[in-house]
Amino acid sequence: xxxxxxxxxxxxxxxxxxxxxxxxxxxxxxxxxxxxxxxxxxxxxxxxxxxxxxxxxxxxxxxxxxxxxxxxxxxxxxxxxxxxxxxxxxxxxxxxxxxxxxxxxxxxxxxxxxxxxxxxxxxxxxxxxxxxxxxxxxxxxxxxxxxxxxxxxxxxxxxxxxxxxxxxxxxxxxxxxxxxxxxxxxxxxxxxxxxxxxxxxxxxxxxxxxxxxxxxxxxxxxxxxxxxxxxxxxxxxxxxxxxxxxxxxxxxxxxxxxxxxxxxxxxxxxxxxxxxxxxxxxxxxxxxxxxxxxxxxxxxxxxxxxxxxxxxxxxxxxxxxxxxxxxxxxxxxxxxxxxxxxxxxxxxxxxxxxxxxxxxxxxxxxxxxxxxxxxxxxxxxxxxxxxxxxxxxxxxxxxxxxxxxxxxxxxxxxxxxxxxxxxxxxxxxxxxxxxxxxxxxxxxxxxxxxxxxxxxxxxxxxxxxxxxxxxxxxxxxxxxxxxxxxxxxxxxxxxxxxxxxxxxxxxxxxxxxxxxxxxxxxxxxxxxxxxxxxxxxxxxxxxxxxxxxxxxxxxxxxxxxxxxxxxxxxxxxxxxxxxxxxxxxxxxxxxxxxxxxxxxxxxxxxxxxxxxxxxxxxxxxxx
Length: 623
Fold this sequence. Notes:
Blueprint: E1 31-38, H1 41-62, H2 74-78, H3 81-104, E2 106-113, E3 118-120, H4 123-134, E4 141-146, H5 166-173, H6 184-198, H7 202-213, E5 217-224, E6 230-236, E7 241-244, H8 250-265, E8 266-275, H9 283-301, E9 304-308, H10 312-320, E10 326-331, E11 334-338, H11 340-351, H12 357-362, E12 366-370, H13 374-381, E13 390-394, H14 397-412, E14 420-424, E15 439-443, H15 456-466, H16 474-486, H17 488-502, H18 510-513, H19 518-540, H20 545-571, H21 574-585, H22 591-605, H23 608-618
Helix pairs in contact: 1-3, 1-4, 7-8, 9-10, 11-14, 13-22, 15-22, 17-20
């Protein structure tokens, strides 16, 4: 509640001590927070020793006393008949509560918060849990919070030891959690002093962390400077240089301190809330975090960690590990578990598209596009709309449609949780696939994405700057672009006629020969050769075949040319047209960069072509 701004660790007399609006979406409605706590066997045995203290705490609470009030003040009250009767009643209630805990080994505590008051479900259970925490020395804790706000001090700080530091240690665990990061040197000094009494050696803990995350460094110890202030020394093994721990980066210091506190402040059964442990760290270090946390801390110390993260590396490791559970916080009211057996099919389908499991499961939105340069063009044209959206290039119409069908099959089984979107070329071939609720499909109305970049005004301005052989005038450019585009019609018709002969396959497929012996395969191949020979003979028997080929081409061109004359911007290949423009005018820059300049220029001027494309892209974006 302190971290959320709902209350303060330092109350002012007479002031309202919490703000429900910091917790609730609707401040007029009450909030219910519940926590189920399971006790270790040793903790249950220790509860028998808790009865006198919990009884005394319960009586003090009934009298309206604060936890920090001196307990000696209760001596007079407990000596009276009323006090003795209250003690008897309180002890009976505590005995009953401990009996319930001993039987079930767990208890649920709940707090109800509204705009006027805070009510707990059971004062006794709260005090029993509090006793488990209070019996520990100040540097130890069962519950701890590690916020993302790591304000690490640089330079020397004042060191306090003993009773002066008692409350600061307690508060740093939870109520003022951010102060634990400012206590790096304080923590090291305290542990060093305590080592004189309880045989604690910090060097192995430090060096274990260094070996895992910062190899080549080791803990040297403490040193008092001539100024009288204390410094924590670290040695670089390669150069033998000794330096102050302040010389580490903020991410490295935060990581070292966090793991040092995990190892030195937690006890068996502890629960820690950790926010963005990967902060200010590169991916190579992030990949080591969860394995070390799970194996060297949680497992060896029997602790639990609840970690929030934006790291793909940590998410991936959590997804793959049997000793970690992965959840997706979808919104303020929905946190969904991600189970490997549930998402195997969808992850397998998406992985074929070049997307990792963590991206498939946690990305805000995935849009798959066709073409290597499409991602660059779209991001150049619509940087604001596509901020935070994962764009992935694909290759091949057949692969795209197969992937769409696989994802839609997973959606029917209820395995697909996040929206997946596909934007692909028209290619003069309409798709038969349709969008579903979670698999959105948009096929371009024009041949390809580059067709939306064919704007003579923008192209002329850019070619005058970035071409070695720029067009003479706007009119000349407009005429030449039109000629180049319509000129593609010849190759389009030729490809259609030649496609009739591409189906003449001579070889046998693996499916056709499966389960057959050598003689059967030989006979089948001979039959295939004769079929192809028959077709070829029928096609080439006519001596006028070449003339007929040209006539067929001319007929198709005569039929389609008027259509292309009026609709060449939609029908031609924009990719080929851009390559022709590059050659015609000798661009002195990379073609993809040139396309991006065209796209951003069209978007800046809000031209109709790019506005049309924006409407298509918008239909793929989450609401």
